[in-house]
Amino acid sequence: MDKKKKLKHTVNKVKEQSSMERKNQNDKSKSIHDILPLDLIHIILLRVSIRHLARLNNACLSMENDTMADLAYLDDNNASQKEVCPPFQNKARSGFVVLGSCRGFILLHRDPHFLVVWNPLTGSSKRISYSHIVHRSKPPLYGRIAYRSYLHGFGYDASQDDYLLLVAWSDCKGHYHLDCFSLRTNSWINLDAAFPKLLGFRYWHSGGLFFNGAVHWVPFDLEDYRDAIVIFDLKEKTFSTISAPEQLSGSSPSVALLGGCLALSSPNDDCRNTDIWVMKEYKVHSSWTLYQIPCEDFKPLCLSSNRDTIGRGYTSCGKTGYFIYNVRGDLLKHFKDLCCQLPRREPIIVYTESLLPLPGDIKDKDNKKKMKKEIHMPSSSP
User: Fold this and answer.
1) Taking all residues of the chain, what is their mean pLDDT, rounded to a whole number?
2) Cβ neighbour number for residue 309 with a 10 Å cutoff
3) Beta-carbon contacts of residue 309 (< 8 Å; ≥ 6 apart)
4) Does residue 162 register a pLDDT over 80?
5) Is residue 237 domain-resident?
6) DSSP-assigned letter for residue 201
7) What's the rounded Cα separation, in Å, for the pair 79 and 60?
8) Domain that holds residue 331
9) DSSP secondary structure of 130-186
């Protein structure tokens, strides 16, 4: 091979490698719904064994920093961790905050006034602006982070097969409002819902917990608000409340879902234990049941396959990170290998991985198929 042919061969090889690298990069940025049509995904899933689909895990998600999310998979003696990059990154200003989860989708807040619905497994996502609310709402006090001036909720209305995003806010006159975004209709509506008596949204955890067809919020301090849990039913579009156990004290309570039951947790007055109250029967006050964990600041997240409590916190012995305790308060496992910087006040949520597409994705694909069919449909003879 002479020099010219050799040079041409080398150039073509470099171009081929560069083309392959660009293709791989493009493929990485695409979700499964961009690569495969929805009807083909359904056919594939129907042929997959249920035991393989059951391997979709529960994961604990929190923001490691402003631009990177941390996923921890925990169960009994097994643990793994990975970093994932949320969509719609803005190099100048990202500021993601985790607000909730529902059926495999995560709700994020992104500065300055955007909500992002994201499926970390498939990569599908949608960005929703609520700037029209920000312009009418009362500005945050003392330069507080803007998202804390609102209550956010995210849930699924089974009666309409629709995912709903909630933003509760107050105007300059102190009047409360509730706006709802439908992912199926891709539109905002204002709900005329009667609010329970509140102290102001800055005294509440901004993100709500979706459970039993409703979104649940808790205040930062139980002494200021004894009707500790505020509930919004997504089907009936009504508010209600649940009172906390009389014995539950302390500040910064957290709400969790443990084994299909609502739970409240808060550091004990002795500052060496965490009280976890589990509501065995939903909305039945007498069913609150106490469990104590010998961990100074323990946030229960979920139950393991053995029905032991998985959570994150730190102990008086200096141990930090993720732990598993049984109902007697015995430490069963400390996941030492997982990176967990504590104390961390950023919200952490539990979600179950899902291959479900967003309703908007289905609607868009159906419209495209309809348009394509109409284009190729032969015209009728006169």
Assistant:
1) 79
2) 26
3) 258, 276, 291, 293, 300, 303, 324, 325, 326, 327
4) yes
5) yes
6) G
7) 11
8) 58-352
9) -HHHHTTBPPPGGG--GGGGSEEEEEEETTTTEEEEEEEEEBTTS-EEEEEEETTTT
> How do residues 106-119 score in pLDDT, each as one tens digit?
999 987 789 999 99
Per-residue pLDDT tens digits for 361-375: 655 444 444 444 544
pLDDT at 28: 42
CB within 8 A of 297, min separation 6: which ones?
A: 267, 274, 313, 314, 343
* CB-count exposure of residue 322 (10 Å: 0-12, 13-18, 19+): buried
**359 occurs within a structural domain:** no
In this prediction the pTM is 0.79
Q: Between the CA of residue 12 and those of 20, 63, 88, 206, what are the distances in Å?
A: 12, 43, 35, 56
CATH number at residue 330: 2.120.10
DSSP per-residue letters across 5-36: HHHHHHHHHHHHHHHHHHHHHHHHHS-HHHHS
> What pLDDT does residue 300 have?
94
Query: Is there a contact between 214 and 231 (Cβ–Cβ < 8 Å)?
Result: yes
The number of CA neighbours under 13 Å toward the Cβ of 148 is 14
Torsion 367-368-371-373 (CA) sign: negative
List, in order, residues 6 or more apart from 103 with CB less than 8 Å away: 156, 163, 352, 354, 356
330, part of any domain: yes
Total count of domains within the chain? 1
HSE of 183, CA atoms in CB hemisphere, 13 A: 26
Token output for 172? 């300059």
pLDDT for 253 equals 87
pLDDT at position 24, please? 47
pLDDT for the residue 42: 56
Q: Mean pLDDT highest for which of 66-70, 227-231, 285-289, 319-323?
A: 285-289
Residue 232 lies in a domain: yes
Instruction: Tell me the Ramachandran region of residue 159: left when phi exceeds 0, alpha when psi lies from -120 to 50, beta otherwise.
Output: alpha
Nearest to residue 154, comparing CAs of 90, 206, 193?
206
pLDDT in tens, 270-313: 778 899 999 999 999 999 999 999 888 889 999 998 899 999 88
Note the pLDDT of residue 3.
52
Record the tokens describing residue 34, joined without a space. Answer: 């961009």
